[in-house]
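Fold this sequence, please.
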Amino acid sequence: MARHMTFHVGEFARMTGVNKRTLHYYDHEGIFSPDSVEANGYRAYSSRQFYPFYMIRMFRDMGLDLSEIKEYMQGRTPEKFARLLAEQEEWLAQEMAKLKRMRQIVANQRQILNKAGEVKLDEVTEQTFSDSRLVVSENLRQLCLREDWEGVERQFATHLRDVMEGEVLTGYTFGAMVAMQDFMRPGHEQVVSYYYVPTDKPWRQLPKDYRRLRNGGRFLVTYFAGDYMNTAASYGRLRKYMQLHNLKPTGFAYEESLIEDMSTADAREFITCIAVPVAKNDN
């Protein structure tokens, strides 16, 4: 029995998982044509065309435009194939890095949401934090003191653009840093010195002028629900706790959202964390 080495359009389409219209289009455009025309006029594909067709579909899935594939197929050589493979290997490396970052973002966001479901609101606890890498904005304190809110918004927009374009975001939400002289002074709790975003990216990959290490250690932590701008009551709790337990702040307060606009449209459901580094007050 003769070995069946050719396939009509319908057969080839069925075996490669595409519809006949795709094959007709590829043929019409000169991208991929049947191997032969039989005596009865039927156009036939050969078995040796399966692998080239698979590669074409793979390159298409990898983002190559049909015009690029057509140009290659009409003048293909081993040398051109080697260049094409090298280019696609580089593209794949970039895509794999992008997917790895996206997976990390998803994992970190899930972790934050899980944490939000476990916290106790309106209480103060002592926690030990590890070191954390941050990317900060320009200093905003003087703008806040002058109530130049347009300037503050402009700086925040610049910060947002820089961390997005620099692929600094790894699933943590934006935060705000408030200086000791402000959060320890009732009525000044909303004077922000910096916006920041925590990141898992290596230190050497962060912008030199804006990278900052939040040193780990002993922190007072409180969580509250509602508008994340309404921080006065939470800072009041923190100040009272420090007074009762003979503690003093040793650096900036760090405000971070656990539940915010991406999670809910209802600001009453927002959950914000405020963490302040502390030490024993020896005075």
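The chain has a mean pLDDT of 91. The two ends are 101 Å apart (CA to CA).
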